[in-house]
Design a protein that fits this description.
The protein has 656 residues and is α+β, with helices and mostly antiparallel strands. Helix content is 39%, strand content 23%. A hairpin with a 3-residue loop joins strand 21 and strand 22.
Length: 656
């Protein structure tokens, strides 16, 4: 690496560090300015506006103690009831103030007349009901009749805590409708009565059910039935509207199901986890679509006017999915970043329309999937739930689903170490690609042989106006030597789908989650050997050793094959070395399994290059060039047509 290249790399890092300092200073100024406005509004007694500004300040400095204290104080003064800020996303409240439901066991004080036939259900039993099997444990709350929490027994969070997909009264799960006498009902806020006497059910040999009813009179109720089978993450959710024809408006042809949930952070790499968190949904008997991933917007909304099969609140490795056995009529979805909370990464909402025909007894059958984004598990459930794993589209998805994953799963049966599995997988891929890589190496080696002759042409055509002549002479040289300048590019281009497939495969493979290898404690996220006291934009606040090894091996490999035409120019040299540096900055926060794979691929490429050079006889290439120089150049059919057309117009072709 020459002095200019080193200087360029140092300047790049200096720019990033300078930008980091500048950005931090700008954020501090914006925070102080917003806090000053909030304090001024607070002194004037404009408490709601002051609260909004304090929350706005938290966008610049999340969890700043003074701002958080002010928000909590104003929450109490204004009647917003969350006792703990972890249950309220203050960033969301800024634009759409919503009170968080009271904690379990706290009675709801309200005028029962506002709820008509359901007025007797404003208070009730607060004891949670447990329904579990060997895979999952559900806590079901009589308040709202909803699943209060879902814990996956085989998994833990990055800090070794129980992995709970959601928990607490921040979750909304229920029907919204108007009664015949125009009362607005939200079943999520009313108390169901457990029909099941046993409050702790462990499923072992056969399916078990929990039944709750929201009463509206004698033999009039809305019934929720949760049924869990052994060894499954899927829960049957059956709803029965009994004798509701006189209570729910007879003119309703649909009923709204309201589902809202905070998604807690489960992984060490929050940035990477946020990138893969999204709402995914399937159109009725059609494609699976998602809101945009890698989304930096604070709020994304989607109104769907056509039928849906299911909607999934998705994290990087786990999902909560609501599935209709028939279809949802429509849906309104929102995904919001919880920038003011360290505990949560997303706030999801879904308002779904269910077909509804008032009558003596109306049923709606749904399913709930609370489990991992594990492609084999999801395939068993059907309904294209395996599309929850974002493996790419078209040829990239095809390579992952039908080549990489089957080979990966086969290797898992015989090898316990995932580091060794990735090594063997890399070797197998390189063996399959060997014909293409060897072709590319041959072309590169021949170009290196011709480099001295190309340099001579550069000395011969030194003037700028001779650039076209130099180019023509260079191409003529390649042609006579039987070398195509694109001969090394095309084989590399054909390998790109494999590289992109691996880029999509590693960050979403739950098999790598919390798998140790060498110094990496979790191959699904970054490996950190040094924590920085500051944050570098794009790069982050840590140093990943696998990323550094990947970058170094890339530079070494490029140095070995970097004698292509034009690479001696200073500008081209800097550009050549800029790409690995940029990839280092970007991939520092990515899966260490991915950077480990790229490092192995570079090392194998280096040795393949060394071996392939032994098959290139430089004297033979030069002898062929001299032989071809003595032969007249054979004109292509295209060139012959051009010359024929020129003759017809009276233009004599140039003599060669």
């Amino acid at each position: 690496m020459d002095r200019n290249t080193i200087t360029g790399i140092i300047l790049i890092f200096a720019i990033f560090i300078g930008f980091s300092v500048f950005n931090s200073s700008r954020m501090t100024r914006s925070f102080n300015k917003t806090m000053a406005v909030a304090d001024s509004l607070y002194k004037k007694g404009e408490l709601e506006n002051a609260r909004a500004e304090y929350i706005n300040a938290l966008r610049y400095k999340p969890n700043q103690p003074t701002a958080v204290e002010k928000v909590n104080e104003l929450n109490q003064k204004l009647g917003f009831t969350p006792a703990a800020t972890e249950k309220t996303d203050t960033a969301r409240v800024k634009n759409n103030p919503v009170t968080t439901p009271p904690a379990a066991g706290v009675a709801v004080v309200s005028d029962s007349s506002k709820f008509g036939a359901f007025g007797a259900d404003l208070n009730g039993d607060t004891s949670l009901i447990t329904l579990g099997n060997n895979k999952i444990e559900l806590k079901i709350s009589p308040r709202g009749g909803r699943v209060y929490s879902a814990r996956l027994k085989s998994y833990t969070t990055f800090n070794s805590r129980p992995l709970v997909l959601f928990s607490g009264d921040s979750t909304v799960f229920g029907f919204n409708f108007f009664t015949a006498d125009n009362k607005a009902i939200q079943t999520n806020n009313l108390y169901f009565r457990p029909v099941t006497e046993n409050h702790s059910i462990e499923v072992t040999s056969q399916p078990e059910s929990v039944v709750l009813r929201l009463m509206a009179g004698d033999d009039k109720y809305i019934e929720y039935r949760y049924t869990l089978a052994p060894d499954r993450y899927m829960v049957d959710f059956d709803v029965t509207f009994r004798s509701m024809d006189k209570i729910i408006g007879s003119n309703q042809s649909s009923i709204t199901f309201d589902w809202k949930m905070y998604i807690p952070q489960q992984e060490k790499g929050r940035q990477n986890e946020e990138n893969y968190a999204t709402i995914r949904y399937r159109f009725y008997q059609d494609d699976v679509v998602a809101l945009r991933v890698h989304q930096q917007k604070e709020l994304e909304q989607k109104d769907i006017t056509t039928r849906l099969n299911w909607v999934a609140f998705e994290d990087q490795f786990f999902s909560s999915v609501l599935i209709s056995n028939e279809y949802f009529l429509n849906g309104a979805l929102t995904s919001e970043r919880t920038t003011a909370s360290n505990k949560y990464i997303r706030y999801y909402t879904a308002e779904l329309g269910l077909p509804f025909t008032p009558g003596p007894e109306t049923k709606a059958s749904m399913k709930l999937y609370y489990g991992p984004n594990h492609i084999t598990t999801l395939r068993k459930e059907g309904m294209e739930l395996d599309q929850l794993v974002p493996l790419g589209k078209n040829i990239i998805g095809w390579i992952n689903r039908f080549i990489i994953i089957p080979v990966f799963n086969w290797l898992q049966k015989y090898i316990a170490s995932y580091g060794l599995i990735i090594l063997i997988l890399t070797i197998l891929i390189k063996i399959v690609l060997l014909p293409l890589t060897f072709k590319s190496y041959q072309s590169q080696a021949k170009m290196m042989v011709l480099k001295p002759l190309v340099d001579e042409l550069g000395k011969k055509f030194t003037k700028q106006e001779d650039a076209m002549k130099k180019q023509q002479a260079t191409m003529d040289l390649y042609k006579r030597a039987g070398v195509s300048p694109m001969g090394g590019c095309l084989p590399m281009l054909l390998q790109m789908p494999i590289l992109f497939a691996m880029f999509r495969f590693f960050p979403v493979s739950i098999e790598l989650r919390q798998q140790h290898f060498l110094w990496a404690t979790d191959l699904s996220t970054y490996d950190s050997i040094l924590q920085l006291p500051f944050t570098i934009p794009i790069y982050g606040n840590h140093v990943s050793l696998f990323t550094l090894l990947m970058t170094a091996s890339t530079l070494i490999t490029m140095k070995m094959t970097g004698s292509s035409p034009g690479s001696d120019q200073p500008g081209m040299k800097i550009m050549t070395y800029m790409m690995p540096v940029m990839f280092m900055l970007i991939l520092n926060n990515f899966s260490s399994g991915l950077t480990y794979y790229y490092f192995l691929a570079n090392i194998i490429t280096y040795f393949q290059n060394l071996i392939s050079k032994r098959f290139i006889d430089e004297q033979k290439v030069l002898a062929k060039l001299e032989e071809n120089r003595k032969k007249p150049m054979k004109k292509s059919k295209w060139q012959q047509r051009l010359e024929e057309a020129a003759k017809q117009r009276g233009i004599n072709p140039p003599k060669r």
